[in-house]
Amino acid sequence: MKDERRGYPRVYMPIPAEVDVGDSLVHPSIINISQGGICIRGVKDIPANKEVSVRIGEEASLVEMKVCWWHGPDMGCRFLGFMDEHKFAKMIKRLM
C-alpha cells in the first residue's frame, strides 16, 4: 500500500466554483475539499504558486487560495488562511 501524504482527509463532493484569476472569472467544478485545500477540474493556464480567489458553492464567500499542483485536468489549491476543524465542518454542512 502506498503511503498517504495528505495532511487532511478529503470530502468528495462535486460542487460548482468560481475562480477569479485577476483578469477573468472561470467556472470549474470542485472534485474534493479538505481542511487544507481543494481539487478543481476545468481550469486551464493558471501557473503554480499563483494566488487566486475561489467561490466555493453558489452562496459562499470568496476564499483566498494558492495553486499548488497540476495533474492532467485537475488543479490543487491550498487555503492561504488556516481553516480549523470547526470552520471546515461548518463550511461542509453549508455546502451539502
Number of domains: 1
**Largest sheet at a glance?**
6 strands, antiparallel, barrel
Mean pLDDT: 87
CATH superfamily: predicted glycosyltransferase like domains
Task: Give structural attributes.
single chain; 96 residues; mainly beta; Thrombin, subunit H; six-stranded antiparallel beta barrel; 7 strands; 46% strand; globular
Describe this structure in words.
This protein is mostly beta strands. Helix content is 11%, strand content 46%. The chain has a single domain (11-95), classed as Thrombin, subunit H (Beta Barrel), CATH 2.40.10. The protein is built from 1 helix and 7 strands, in the order E-E-E-E-E-E-E-H. The longest helix is centred in the last third of the chain and has 11 residues, at 85-95. The N and C termini lie far apart (32 Å).
Blueprint of the fold:
Elements: E1 11-20, E2 25-26, E3 29-33, E4 37-41, E5 51-56, E6 62-71, E7 74-79, H1 85-95
Antiparallel strand pairs: 1-2, 1-3, 1-5, 3-4, 4-7, 5-6, 6-7
In a few lines, what is going on in this structure?
Helices cover 11% and strands 46% of the residues. By secondary structure, it is mostly beta strands.
